[in-house]
Write a structure and sequence with these properties.
With 171 residues, this protein is mainly alpha-helical. It has 6 helices and 2 strands; from the N terminus they run αβααααβα. It has one domain. The mean pLDDT is 85.
Length: 171
């Protein structure tokens, strides 16, 4: 989407229609670095992630131990007992994978927590940028921290500090 907007802006500028347009940019990475609530949310997410990872590592260690014990004892076990132990190991592996998806999957607990903590901050930033764009009559505001390449930026067109002020933060 950002590439389409950039391409559209370039096409318009080549056609000579941008003589009255105003452009600016922001650095959302810089803005987020200056918002204490974002750092608190990131710290909370890191703690949750470490807790989930530790739980999964413990379960994985149990699974490894079960597999090693099975290999060591398989010579002494009957076929029926081997199948039972294999079923228990397979069941434990499924449990591990399910828990992994539950915690770290695309719709997992960590994703949902990130949505609840980070998205409101991002929405506030977006709304502040939108207000500044409307007040300043900007046609396009680019994000310097995204993957889009900006070879040169004049600091006088950087609205990042204005966004922070609009959000009530000092830079």
């Amino acid at each position: 989407m950002k590439k389409i907007v950039l391409l559209f802006a370039l096409i318009l500028s080549m056609a000579g229609y941008t003589y009255a347009q105003k452009y600016a940019y922001v650095d959302t990475e810089y803005i987020l670095d200056n918002i204490p609530a974002y750092h608190a949310a990131q710290d909370q997410l890191d703690k949750i992630s470490k807790q989930y990872q530790k739980e999964l590592e413990t379960l994985h260690a149990e699974l490894d131990q079960m597999y090693k014990d099975f290999q060591a004892e398989s010579v002494l076990l009957s076929d029926d007992m081997k199948r039972r132990r294999e079923d228990v190991i397979v069941s434990k592996e499924k449990e591990y994978k399910k828990l992994q998806r539950q915690y770290f999957g695309p719709e997992g607990d960590l994703y949902k927590k990130r949505e609840s903590l980070i998205k409101p901050i991002q929405d506030d930033i977006y709304n502040a940028i939108q207000e500044i764009a409307e007040q300043g009559s900007y046609a396009v505001i680019f994000d310097r921290s995204s993957g889009m390449s900006m070879l040169y930026t004049n600091p006088k067109y950087d609205l990042s500090d204005q966004v922070l002020q609009k959000l009530g933060y000092k830079n």
